[in-house]
Amino acid sequence: MKSVAREKPGATHPSGGVPGRAIRGAGPPRGGELSPGGRTALRRALCAWFAGAGRPLPWRERYDPYEVWVAEMMLQQTQVEAVIPFFRRWMARFPDVAAVAAAPEEEVLKAWEGLGYYRRARNLHEAARRMVADHGGRVPADLEALRALPGIGRYTAGAVLSIGFDRAAPIVDGNVGRVLSRLFALPDAARSSAGEARLWELAEALLPSRAPRAFNQGLMELGALVCRPQAPRCGECPLRRWCRARALGSPERFPAAPLPKARPVREGSLLLLHDGAGRLLLRKRPAGGLWVGLWEPPWTERSPAEGAPAAARRLLTALALSPLGGLRRRGRVVHGLTHLELRLACYAAQVQATAGHALPSGNGASAWQWAGAAALAELPMARLGRKALAIGGDIPAGGSRTSG
Ligand code: SF4
Known about the structure:
- With 404 residues, the chain is of the alpha+beta class.
- It has two domains: 218 residues, Endonuclease III, domain 1 (Orthogonal Bundle); 139 residues, Nucleoside Triphosphate Pyrophosphohydrolase (Alpha-Beta Complex), CATH 3.90.79.10.
- Helix content is 39%, strand content 13%.
- The chain has 15 helices and eight strands.
- Helix 1 packs across helix 11, helix 2 packs across helix 3 and helix 9 packs across helix 11.
């Protein structure tokens, strides 16, 4: 990472106290107002800072719209450092839109495994197919066409247009929202739709028609590196002379934290069933719920009255399988999602799986298979399934992959 730009020594700040060169008519904005001269100076300062301090990320090497789009999809809900190796592997496997569109869904999900929020991968896959069908296999350089594609909302469309094509389209993500909230001292931006709408207005009003790519990335990068949620480095900030929250002496108060939401807890039981030949029973998630198309050991939710062992036995009965030697408790998997927390008691058992045994349809599955070691490594699986496999360590290695 390149170093963050340092301020010049000996300058003065218009609001007093902190060094920085004063610019006429460009003091801390009140209520979001900035003079035209102030806007121009702010843009120049931000773009100059980004030119020196922006991180050399792989999707910034060529500014290819396809790469920018994939990176933006991966970066939703995921940190930059975590995304980089996934991005490199993805580009080696899927170098362009056509390669994604032509791949089977299971291969796309496997390439996404570990990033979580698999709906993004399915949307990316479907959007690539539509780009091939309707846009000549290219990412469209048009706001409405982008927003008509699955998984591309206002933010992603603005990011692809401005960063991928250098076209003037505003963006507001968490980092940009925080910078703007502090710059204009807006406390409620994260708590109301009116506050969010105000951020979009400001992002649009500040956006230059020339070099929107550098400006938008500068705002994002500033939020990531300098204007951090806690302990912002205001002394190093290229926008400090315009910043109202800093002038008020309490930048961390902006924006006020979102009101906390209670996350319900769901309890259940999960089965690690092996057939004695090194194969584990997996189900494929059906359409219309969580982790569509991914594989996992079967599990079921339970009511507080049922108890974990009873729920495990109920699921085993539904699968028409009998354990040899009983069910063994193997610990618990706790998995947090944005809207709930799952706590699953894990039970392992060896079961009799004869060649002709057909598993009952349903039971949260669109397909079943007995998976050997190779298939367990190959199949796309959500983190919940991987956590369960990690604690079910007595499954013998070996065996081959079969479908059922
Ligand atoms: S001066 Fe401080 S609070 Fe204001 S934008 Fe810069 S880092 Fe953020």
